[in-house]
Amino acid sequence: MVDVNLSEAEKTFIVHGIQDNFREDGRSNEEYRQMDLETGLMSNTSGSARLRLANTEILVGVKAELEEPKPEKPDVGRLEFFVDCSANAAPEFEGRGGEELATEMMNLLYRAYSASTVLDVSSLCLQSGKLCWVLYVDVLLLECGGNLFDAASIAVKAALFNTKIPSVKVRQEEGEETELEVSDDPYDVRRLDVSAAPTVLTLSKIGHNHIVDASQKEEACCLARLMMAVTASGSVTATVKEGRGSLDPDSITEMMQVGKRVGKAVNEKLLETLKEEEQKGLKRKTVGFLR
Amino acid sequence: MAAPMVKVPGQRLARKDETTKPGTGTYEQNGFIYSSLAGCVQKETSSDGSVQISVITDVQQTVVPSVEAIVTARITNVTPRFCKCSILTVGKIPLKEPFRGMIRKEDVRATEKDKVETYKCFRPGDIVVARVLSLGDSQSYLLTTAENELGVVIATSEAGASLVPISWCKMQCPRTLAEEFRKVARVQQEFLQYTDT
Amino acid sequence: MPDTRRITGPEETQSPFAFCPQFLAQSAEAFSDGKRRDGRKAEADHRPVFLKAGLISQAKGSAFAELDKTKVVCAVYGPHEVARREDFSMQGQISCEVKFAPFSCRVRRQHVQDGREKDLSTQLLEALEPAVRLDSFPKSQVDVFVTVLENDGSALSAAITCASLALADAGIEMYDLVVACTARIHGTSILVDPSFSEENLKTVSGEKPGGQVTLGFMPSLRQVSALCYHGDTDLDVLSQATQRCQDTCHKLYQVVQDTLVKSVEQRMNNS
Predict the structure, then answer these.
(1) Which of A181, B51, C119, C216 has the smallest number of Cβ neighbours within 10 A?
(2) Between chains, do C174 and B62 touch, taking CB under 8 Å as contact?
(3) What is the pLDDT of residues A184-210, one digit of tens each?
(4) Average of pLDDT values for A64-68?
(5) What is the pLDDT of residue B1?
(6) pLDDT of residue A130
(7) How far is CA B61 from CA A249, A287, B56, B190, C109, in A?
(8) Range of A66's domain?
(9) Contact C139 B135 (CB under 8 A)
(10) A289 is a domain residue
């Protein structure tokens, strides 16, 4: 993560504030910052979303392609994640500088979406062993303002909600080659059911307490983080502990309880917002980038 | 003699109080002394009655040049402003992989620092004994030879023979009897041999 | 880049297992005749463990771990100068590399590190960093190389335990040893230390798919140094599984301690 330089006094100030459940910007320990979400911005993708969480800006594009399924899983389609930390966000991301952070984010996304109940990937398969839809989810990090993992996962879920896969008719006659008919009608599309898709919640341990949605300064004081991928029904699909410090087993249980509660709330609110936005249709006003 | 106790990292050794002190290979937490190495426990009682507990391992100790340590290095580069060298041992313990060190012009000797000509103090290939001044920067450690006991110990002359020290600033080749300039380390008393004149 | 050192065979190769139906068919049953698939009786039974420290003479420290059929070897080199000059810090660094031998899994692996191995390397680093005293070797780097010789499940936890044993054998100052354990959640049962076939159990229809959790634990200090889980379960089942892993780690700690003590005594007798 991009580091800010904090003095010992500033760190103590932040730690004390968190102890009293009153953070630097006035939030409580379990509050998120203001989020702005927009979907369907890019015409070249099957689905896209832009999320702005205070100073963090993430852009996700989903492209659906027809490919052969993996030999050990012939009946299912798949999701492929790719994260790119653009040099816009921080000069040290230039070239291969952001690779470590990008790999971590990709690994977490793969882990969160690995369970079969999260997304119905078997419906993405058109012909067993021969043809399936592969969804390439590309995440672009435009600005770094702390809490990148959460923002990326929320944007990914929104983009998947927005994804429109064209209907395909597969015709195979005896002895003849398979014929594909991809519909070019923009309204003859299939949507994905993302109600069981997870969003990541990062809980940072600072002092003896833990906080949700850490800003960059708070991240600099934190020694250990627990990242949980929680679905709308409250089940957990991935958990990773990250950071140089170690965690007490009791505080892990506490953090997971908080994570489940807040994660459920975030998921519900997200689905609500996405449905609202969709209902507005073409009449909604779009806001520009990096505003 | 009772076999010494073998401890592993994380095992509690003793409670920390005024008489017990943590030594090498141990750390203190929450009022207890824990072991941080896998080795034998050694208890040393000092003159004022306090006991120092340390854990000794016979694996070559994890040695990294620390500040104020005496190191032996081989000179690799000589420029008018500084000399680059490769640190071979820390104290008596040889390193498996050398670290990089640097001796600045003003750290070569204690007197007349500004009139130092590095080419007259060190040559590439010389073995020097130096003291670590600081951890330096990401590239190399900072060393100094500004003491009587520090400086060149082994050097080869231009003819190929091993140079013999004759004064604090000169060494002589035994084959050609030519004198070369070096910043020589003071030879220990036991290695001096007096002739009968 | 074409590999000119090995004869890789034609590009259109296929695994013979694709044509063998009984290998592909994953069972959904964890238990048969009241025993687990590899003969263990209880859910909480760990496979027999064999550990040895100090086997690679060239390395500063090394260790070998065997969990029934899973075999892992680890070598530690260092501390030496940091390879990348820009990283100047008053604390030392650890660099971990986990590699599966090409013959270690059912399907042949590539000799280049792939995404999964890089992920395991990151997890191993997470597990070891809290336990090592990094300020004892400033400006230097310690390399930890782990090779999985045979993978029959629980490869990551074997790697973590093996690596911390190797670090202690190398004489690197640590706050505590790290012991790791994996648990597979399948339906309502929590299988501790799953074998490869248990890790790939098919979901019982109608039930949640379960998941797999690996816990890296420091038994003396009672702190968790690594936690990684993927799957789809309820939080209480996950907490239960983590607790089960913790208890197993306490049992394993005794074995790790005895191995280290034995290797130190052996070294003392040899010198």
Answers:
(1) A181
(2) no
(3) 787 888 888 888 899 999 999 998 888
(4) 89
(5) 41
(6) 82
(7) 34, 62, 9, 29, 38
(8) 8-283
(9) yes
(10) no
pLDDT higher for A159 or C57?
Answer: A159
User: Around Cβ B196, how many Cβ atoms within 10 Å?
Assistant: 3
Sign of CA dihedral C37, C42, C46, C49: negative
Nearest residue of C to residue A240, measured between CA atoms: C228
Task: Show which subunits contact A, needing at least 3 CB pairs below 8 angstroms.
Answer: C
Amino acid present at B75: I
Predicted confidence band at C27 (pLDDT cuts at 50, 70, 90)? low
Give the number of residues written for chain B.
197
Q: Which domain holds residue C100?
A: 37-259
Give the model confidence (pLDDT) of A7-32 as tens digits.
889 999 999 999 998 888 888 888 88
- Closest Cα in chain A, distance from residue C105 (Å): 14
Give me the number of domains chain A comprises.
1
Q: C247 lies in a domain?
A: yes
Q: Residue holding tokens 């993560």?
A: A1
| pLDDT of amino acid A228 | 92
Structure tokens at A14: 């932040």
Interface of B with C in 138-177 (CB under 8 A): 138-139, 141
CB contact under 8 A, A107 and C235: no
Task: Name chain A contacts of C242, Cβ cutoff 8 Å.
Answer: 249, 252-253
Q: Is the pLDDT of residue A1 over 70?
A: no
Domains in chain B, CATH or no CATH each: 6-56 (2.40.50.100), 70-181 (2.40.50.140)
- Read off the CATH number of the domain in which A18 is found: 3.30.230.70
Q: Tell me whether residues C133 and B27 touch, CB distance under 8 A.
A: yes
Subunits close to B (at least 3 CB pairs below 8 A):
C
Question: Which of A111, A118, A252 is closest, CB to CB, to C227?
Answer: A252
Q: How high is the ipTM of this complex?
A: 0.83
CATH code at position C228: 3.30.230.70
Does residue A49 sit within a domain? yes
What pLDDT does C157 receive?
A: 94
The span from the CA of B196 to the CA of C17, in Å, is: 90
Contact state of C261 with B8 under an 8 Å Cβ cutoff: yes
Q: Which residue has the tokens 């059911």?
A: A193
For the ranges B17-31, C25-39, C83-97, the one whose mean pLDDT is highest: B17-31
Q: Is residue A291 part of a domain?
A: no
Please count the structural domains in chain C. Answer: 1
pLDDT the model gives residue A226: 92
What band does A229 get if pLDDT is binned at 50, 70 and 90?
very high
Task: Kindly report the average pLDDT of chain A as a whole number.
Answer: 86
pLDDT for residue B2 is more than 60: no
Residue A290 placed within a domain: no
Distance CA B21, CA B5 (A): 18
Assess if residue C158 is contained within a domain: yes
For the entire predicted model, the pTM comes to: 0.87
The dihedral region occupied by C199, where left means phi > 0, alpha psi between -120 and 50, and beta the remainder, is alpha
